[in-house]
């Protein structure tokens, strides 16, 4: 009997649902969008509400482009995101 691979899929949400997600839920839901980490989507969370999926995509790309333009190292980027995450969790 051939083995079956079960793949868990997240429930697809509407853009309105995505816009209404809390900080951590937003990061968790979009974690696989960029580099399989919630860090990049979390950086875009404060730019909600997004008017379209294209707008969400552009916001993520803009954030990544700014990091590359500024010549930030991956380690310093991680520190900035962790700091932002901690500050948002306190709110």
Automatic annotation (TrEMBL):
<protein>
    <submittedName>
        <fullName>Uncharacterized protein</fullName>
    </submittedName>
</protein>
<dbReference type="InterPro" id="IPR036778">
    <property type="entry name" value="OHCU_decarboxylase_sf"/>
</dbReference>
């Amino acid at each position: 009997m051939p083995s079956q691979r079960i793949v868990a899929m997240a429930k697809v949400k509407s853009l309105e649902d995505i816009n209404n997600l809390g900080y951590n839920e937003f990061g968790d839901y979009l974690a696989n969008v960029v580099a399989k980490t919630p860090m990049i989507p979390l950086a875009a969370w404060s730019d909600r509400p997004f008017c379209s999926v294209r707008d969400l995509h552009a916001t993520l790309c803009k954030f990544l482009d700014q990091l590359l333009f500024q010549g930030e190292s991956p380690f310093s980027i991680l520190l900035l995101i962790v700091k932002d995450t901690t500050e948002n969790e306190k709110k």
